[in-house]
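User: My collaborator sent over this chain with a note saying "see what the structure looks like." That's all I know about it. Can you take a look?
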Amino acid sequence: MRAYEFLNEDRSPPSKPITLRVLHQMKLAQKRREASERERMVLMPLMYGDADRHREQLELERLELEMMQLQADINATNAETAVKSSMVIHKNAKSGINATEKSQQKLTKLAKSGIGRSLKL
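Assistant: Without extra context I'll predict from the sequence alone. Here is the result:
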């Protein structure tokens, strides 16, 4: 080879100029690649995944949901029981107060009647 052939080979051909149109096309191509990669990543676990493990996970989630529902039922029952017991305690306390007032009234009445008899003598 001659010297001028070496000198011309070192020079790289001019690259394509980057324009707005080329940038836009590159951006659209990147979006298409990302969309196809997302679709592929959605299918990968289905194609190569362990179906038994997935079923077990679903069963575990269902059991956890049932446990949460049962806990909610228990909490509702406890709240209802607490309300009923507080109503019963209130009713018993009120009847105790009424009984105390009645006995006090009887004692007062007996005392007044006893004083009245001693004064009449």
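A starting point for your reply to your collaborator: The chain is about 90% helix and 0% strand.
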